[in-house]
Amino acid sequence: MALGDGATPAPVPNLSISGAALAALLHRCAAAAGDCDGLLFGRASHLPAPPASLSDYDDLPPAPALSISVSGHCSLSHPSSLSDPLGRFQAPSSDPSSAVGFFSSRRRTALRPSMRELALANSLSKTIEGRTIAHPLLFILVSPSASPNFSTHSYDYRAFLLLGSRLVPASISVVNVGPGFRDQYHAFYPESPMPCLPIPQPSSPEPTGQRHTHTIGEQKAVDEIVDGFGIGRLQGVLGSAAGQAAEMDDMYAGMLRKLEKLAREVEQSNLRVLEQENRNLLLRYRYAGMQ
């Protein structure tokens, strides 16, 4: 339906994706054996109303009243898992009702949606049209490429919004930790693996035989965070003020040692995975007769 001369176009939602979610999405596209696709998850929220403008101009563009932020993705191992050959949506194992859109990865191709992706966008939009906040469907098209010796990987990506029955290009911002990332903390529910410890009361000692006994599960919960820090010692930190700073410093030093050990293990495993991926790619090229 064409807009009239006096009609005001609807404001485009504010699109954003966290840096960690974008890195995980690009890694998934690069690690795939061929083309792949998947669902995008995140949250859509209404932006607060802007303050009253003091400008005398009436033709200012309307501010976006909706924000769509991407925080993760879901993709199956085999390519083209979201649609059949006709572009009709096929529901994967995850629930698509909470999805904000989908992505598609095609190697060394122009960043233009295909007819199949347009059909998939319309089909997926009809499937999840009963979501809590109505918003246009988001589509991210990724085109990864690599150097001949696989030493350098590059990525091109572009975002589109399903407006009406067309996929319209839209700008998407990559948001890291900072003031711009604050809006995504509304869906964050902090959970601590620390066990719930009763604070001892020095003025009212517990009767003999009624002291709190710590279970093996509580001690394991503490050991997962910091090695060698007893649960009785942690309870003393919570209940006494004398020597609390030194004890906290010792606990955080143990936590940092634990994190450093985990970081080194992850770094070594990533190097082994990268070496195996490069060997697999070289074998695929060799079997395909490209070398």
Secondary-structure map with pairings?
Layout: E1 14-18, H1 19-31, E2 36-46, E3 66-74, E4 99-105, H2 115-127, E5 137-146, E6 153-163, E7 166-170, E8 172-175, H3 216-223, H4 231-239, H5 244-287
Parallel strand pairs: 1-3, 1-8, 4-5
Antiparallel strand pairs: 2-3, 2-4, 5-6, 6-7
Task: Summarize, please.
The protein has 5 helices and 8 strands. It has 291 residues and is an alpha/beta fold. The protein has an 8-stranded mixed sheet.
Features:
FAM175; coiled coil; globular; single chain; about 20% strand; alpha/beta; eight-stranded mixed sheet; Cytidine Deaminase, domain 2; 5 helices; about 290 residues
Strand order of the largest sheet: 7-6-5-4-2-3-1-8
Return Rg in Å. 26 Å
**Beta-strand residue fraction:** 15-25%
Low-confidence stretches: 1-8, 206-211
What count of structural domains?
A: 2
CATH topology of the largest domain: Cytidine Deaminase, domain 2
InterPro entries: FAM175 (IPR023238)
Coiled coil: 245-284
Pfam families: MPN_2A_DUB_like
Keywords: Coiled coil
What do these coordinates show?
The protein is of the alpha/beta class. The chain folds into two domains: 160 residues, 3-Layer(aba) Sandwich (Cytidine Deaminase, domain 2); 72 residues, no CATH class. The chain is built from five helices and eight strands. It has an eight-stranded mixed β-sheet with strand order 7-6-5-4-2-3-1-8. α2 links the parallel β4 and β5. The longest helix is centred in the last third of the chain and has 44 residues. It is globular, with a radius of gyration of 26 Å. 19% of the residues are buried. Keywords: Coiled coil. It holds the Pfam family MPN_2A_DUB_like. InterPro entries: FAM175 (IPR023238).
